[in-house]
Structure prediction request, 248 residues.
Amino acid sequence: MIPSTRAPLALVSVLLLAACGRDMQTEKEVTTRTSAGDAATSISGDSADTRNQALVRVVNAVPNVIGLTVRSDEAHTLPSVDYKRVSSYQPIDRNWATFQVSGSPNGAYAPIDVNREMLTDGHRYTMVVMRESEGGGFSTRIFRDDIASDSTSAHVRVIHAAKGAGELDIVAPGGETIFDDVDYTSEAGFKSMAPWKGALQVRDGDGKSTLLTLPSLDLMAGGSYTIVITRDAGGKLASFWFEDRQQA
Prediction:
């Protein structure tokens, strides 16, 4: 078991809300399945919009930290989440939220800065907590989720949460580069591709050295897959994934 870090953590979340030409709300309920075998179903984006809520979940990409807990205010706490896990979506009924984080479910919350973030009703967001680029602190990125309704293709994105790894390339079987030059704390994707089953390789930014192999991925049509590259407790590159799928 990974030991718990009891010291309170603080995050300043960065939310990119670039204008998007398509509606990112989901019309149907969404089921999330993880590489650990967990599954959870959340309400549709349309239902959340009717309730004046956004949907937010938390990914813990910080080695040695279990029971990571985030709240949007003193009255609203998201479920705690262990390392290499993703929480279920939770409704947030404020368009402006100040997120705070603690290293354990019962720990203190002590943000180092106050940073309110804008959320859009009916849309889904994934908050990834990771190490700061410099020093031993913690930071976060919030990515808006685009859960595909296209049932003919697999849809893939990669989040780089492996501190110190530099730029990464993601290479499919046969040598095709799916994503290249992915920077730390950045997201690449979503990209639509033909369904397939096999291994993905994580290579350095030059595309020459294989740093990590992700075996036995089964990217099925209609699924939206998030692959998180992080580090394990020993400092080696590691990964985990989760799939989102709108219900039929």
About this structure: Residues 45-50 form the longest helix (6 residues).
